[in-house]
């Protein structure tokens, strides 16, 4: 009887794991589409990028707001998990910071679009913003600390201030084709490097 119960439970667990992987793949595809086309991108474009039917997307996320919020959370977690991995890759901490900031800029594109889907004054928006700060400020601080310990940057750079500055550089990116926010952010991160006397 124990064997039958275990055998009966295994396919259900496997299905849940498969469904979770499929949902993560769908969210990654949606995030990529949002970064290039904005949060108003057609659902058919997201479905094509994910290799699924539109019905699959609507089954997981009945409304665009559901999808955008899920992508937002997915990107926060991806950014949070990427910081330690980039530091562990053995390169310079400043280079790891630059790579992480690229992921953060991709996230900011979706974050700015979130305001178009949710009311910024709503409780849900505030909770998402608090979640974003709780997860990402410590990761940015860890990258900054590592770069400071390596003597690459000054030790007095505050993670929240840097992230806020990057966010401000990214505002309005979609409204002006002559403005390249990513290039401005790259210049900011390059400017953190301290010159070393020979």
Structure characterization notes:
The chain is built from eight helices and no strands. It is an all-alpha fold and 198 residues long. The longest helix has 36 residues. It is globular, with a radius of gyration of 20 Å. The N and C termini lie far apart (75 Å).
Quick description:
This protein has 198 residues and is an all-alpha fold. It has helices at residues 2-37, 43-50, 54-60, 64-88, 93-117, 123-149, 159-170, 181-191. One of its GO terms (molecular function) is DNA-binding transcription factor activity.
CATH superfamily of the largest domain: Tetracycline Repressor, domain 2
CATH architecture identity of the largest domain: Orthogonal Bundle
CATH class of the largest domain: Mainly Alpha
Radius of gyration: 20 Å
User: Please, how many domains?
Assistant: 2
The CATH topology assignment of the largest domain is: Tetracycline Repressor, domain 2
Q: What's the end-to-end separation, in Å?
A: 75 Å
**Percent helix:** over 70%
Order of helices and strands: HHHHHHHH
The gross shape turns out to be globular
Largest sheet: none
Classification by helices and strands: mainly alpha
* Total DSSP helices: 8
Q: In percent terms, what proportion of residues is strand?
A: under 5%
DNA-binding region: 42-61
Keywords: DNA-binding, Transcription, Transcription regulation
Domain HTH tetR-type: 20-79
Protein name: Transcriptional regulator, TetR family
